[in-house]
Backbone:
């Protein structure tokens, strides 16, 4: 499995709008591309966010990056032309352990 993570630092006055945009528009749009099995949206501190997308495989992530990422990144930039700093990383999952008792 390949994990694609986007970390955002958001200016305080934009946090509410950013959270709403991510929940209602951006993450659903990414999932609709079919490249990802799931996603999670997290906050570690006020203004510090992470979205973790689980790609089906390397080919799916590569297709997403080539075909969909430019358009979706542009849309985010149009919504937040300033006040949001992003970094992106790709992670190859080497091993995963299910949580005992967790539904599958």
Residues:
């Amino acid at each position: 499995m390949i994990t694609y993570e986007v970390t955002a630092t958001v200016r305080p006055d934009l946090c509410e709008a950013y959270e709403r945009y991510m929940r209602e528009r951006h993450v659903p749009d990414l999932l609709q591309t079919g490249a990802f099995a799931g996603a999670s949206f997290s906050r570690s501190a006020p203004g510090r966010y992470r979205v973790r997308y689980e790609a089906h495989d390397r080919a799916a992530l590569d297709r997403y990056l080539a075909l969909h990422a430019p358009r979706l990144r542009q849309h985010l930039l149009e919504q937040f032309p300033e006040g949001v700093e992003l970094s992106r990383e790709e992670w190859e999952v080497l091993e995963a352990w299910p949580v005992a008792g967790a539904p599958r």
Summary: The beta strands are 2-10, 36-45, 48-55, 84-92. The mean pLDDT is 95. The helical segments are 15-31, 58-67, 69-79.
